[in-house]
Amino acid sequence: MHTSPWILGALSSALLAACTTVPDYHTPTPLQDGQALPARYAHAPTASAQEPETAQQESLRQWWSRFQDPVLDQIIDRALAQNLDLQAALARVQQARAVAGLADAALLPSGTVSAQAARERQSLRSPLGEIASHQPGYQRNQTLYDLGAGASWEADLFGGLHRQRDADQASAEAAAADGLGVRVAIAAEAADAYFSLRGAQARLAITEEEIATDTRLSELVSLRLQDGLDNRRELALAQAQLASARAALTPLRTLIELQRNRLDVLMGQVPGSSATALTGDATTIAAAPALSTLPAPAALLRRRPDVMAAERRLAASHARIGVAMAEYYPKLSLSGLLGFESLSSLTLSGQTFQPLAVAGLRWRLFDFGRVDAEVAQARGANAEALARFRQAMLKATEDVENALVTEIQLDDRLQALQARRAATADALAAAREAFDGGATSQVEVLQQQRQLLDARDQLALAQADAARASVGTFRALGGGW
Question: What is the pTM of this model?
Fold first, then answer.
């Protein structure tokens, strides 16, 4: 028998391609060009130490409890239980796990059982009716009984189905990591809104004190002007300060309502329904907890959900290379059917027994480079996933470094503002003593009191910013799950 040379060439090319297999997946280095992650963050506090990883995980799991604010704890608990974005993310995890379950099932045989009874009145003008109607004993009314059990199985000779299972399993794990990322984001968003609210409430109370002080100051300056002890410039300045304080009320009240609406939505509630009752009019801002311990940058691979998801997507893309390369190989499928079929009443006997066995072979030999293109596409997707994984690791490290820088700088600012408040409080006490001794006027006391209120306002803003920065650090470290 003569075999065409081009057929032999195609067979040889297919077999050579089939001999190339994709190696098992191993997590690559998180940085390119042989770079290594540092042992500690560049902006980590010098006093920070390393704890065992289990202790670090426990410290980050419910980081909000470190603020020791029961209202914050209640808000985040509600948000994690009722947030709709989180519920949608969990539903996506269920879908991805179901797809992974389908890939597992594809490795096993599938079986079916069928039973059917069909009643038919044969047309005498149909081809079968024209022939059969002239035969003795022909009956136009017929009943066909069919009972059978079948099974089919594709033999995964070259690993394509196993690679597909690995890809779907890794995709499900990536979806689970995405769900953890939503959980981390929801907890951080709720805390950020809460501290923004508390800062606005504290500043609103201080602003109302400023209005009372400026009102009294304006009245005194007006009286002094009438007595010729002051000038119109001092009165204009006092009135301008009063107007400025009154103007500050509107943005603060707006911010309070906006943050309450934000909290309600995060807790899965209608805006304006529950956050107001939870937060009240408290003006105390919880102190940001000190970062005594920090996990190493390499721990972000196990702590940051976005990095975890990127690594799992990389694993899935690696497995899909094997799925594409399996198309170089032939596919063998086996099917069988055991059944009974009869035109009379259904009887299970040797005469009605109708078995069937099928062995199928499929091999994509002449597809003009389609498999090559599919493999190339899978390799390209894997290279993209690798770049995204490494970029996610870099971005995660950047987030932590930026959060640490922000927290350190805000802590320095907070200390400076605390010193300013203490100094202005001392100056106010001295002014009051001088007023009691008749050495100064009440106007100067009120002006000094206004400086103290301004220092308190700036300090309240800094305290809220410091608490929000601490939340940002916990979020950057992947805390909250």
Answer: 0.84
